[in-house]
What we know:
Elements: H1 3-37, E1 42-45, E2 48-62, E3 65-67, E4 74-77, E5 84-85, E6 90-95, H2 98-125, H3 131-150, H4 154-174, H5 182-195, E7 204-207, E8 212-215, H6 235-247, E9 257-259, E10 264-271, E11 283-288, E12 293-301, E13 311-318, E14 330-346, E15 351-353, E16 356-363, E17 366-371, E18 374-377, E19 381-384, E20 400-404
Antiparallel strand pairs: 1-20, 2-10, 2-14, 3-9, 4-6, 5-8, 6-7, 8-9, 10-13, 11-12, 11-14, 12-13, 14-19, 15-16, 16-17, 18-19
Amino acid sequence: MNKNNKNSLKGSKQGILIAVIVFVIVAFVIVECYGVLNVRLQTQEALASTVYETIDTRALFIRDEHTVSAGSGITIAAVSDGEKVNSGGQISMMFASEESAQRYSNYIELDELRRHYTDMENTAVGSVSDIDVLENSIVSDINNYVRCAAYSDIEGAKDYSLDVNDNLTKRSILVGEPIDFSSSLTELENKISALDISTCKPTGYVTADTAGYYSKYTDGCEGAFDYSKVKDMDVNTFNEYLMQAVSSKGTTQNGGKIISSFVWYLCCVVNAEDVDGLEDGYNTQVVIKSTDQELKCTVIKGAEVSLTDNQTLLVLACNEMDNSLSSMRLEDIEIRVKSHTGIIVNSSAVHDINGEKGVYALVSNIAKWRKADILYTGEDYVVLSYDDPDVSNGIKLYDRIIIRGRDVYDGKVFA
Length: 415
């Protein structure tokens, strides 16, 4: 091949390469222009939701509580955590030996299981709840199980797994699947008979010296904080209490504790500007972050601050109690200061027409203007008013709000 042919071939290859590059560039420009000029219409159903303005902080739980005697010898609890007890009521049972305590404890578990299966058997021949209620309970229990597992709450996870099993069994009964409990009940009866509990009954009992809630968990702070002076506590005293609670450790040297008063307190120091929207005496919601549990609380003090204060000691009162709350001392919480209920949409979906805020709704393939007030502005979203009787063209529930589309205007028809 001569030199001229080689140059010709090289030129042809370069020409092809340039043509390919030009084609790719042109194709890219066409695609981009098409994307700009042909924005796909997207809508969102108008559903009511609630958004909260919150204070995130760490709270100290102060209760009217005291430890109780562990009793002599080997003891096992006679009541569950978070359960109410009467003055003089049995808290725990005492046994002569660990072997006797273990056998009696096994008997209690088997007897509870026997009663449980008996109740389930009676359910099979009686009425069962609606299937939608059961399925919602199953989903809720599974979510709670996962949450407990994530926080290493073994007892909580165990309880929810049993609840899931029970509801699945009830669902099977409801849809007509035959379930025979007789073999399980017979097996339990045989195990109970083999225990011979006449030789391992309690030798005595530990009783409550006052009425209240019982918890087997203690952390060494019982009685350390002056419950009667919580309402008069200042920031310095709170900080001292906080340091003491941080350094405390759980103990098993006693028989648990009694929470005497049904009202207890959540105390926390927050920025003064954050309590805007709260008032002393008002009710508010508090969420325990570790469990997602919602509590109804009352603001006792700290919401009304002077202009010169940078921080305030916020004290909230609550009268709810369960096995989880009874063992909490320091918890990260979310205080819901304000709530806004409306239609949540992306900020880009809101338009300003002649000074009037609103959105477009797709009604029978026609864009219709919907006037709305902005109730709250988030990072990239807004909460809009809806179903206002004073606004004839306001947002209605289940409107299809246009959140993306090109050249949208009132009356535009979309094919």
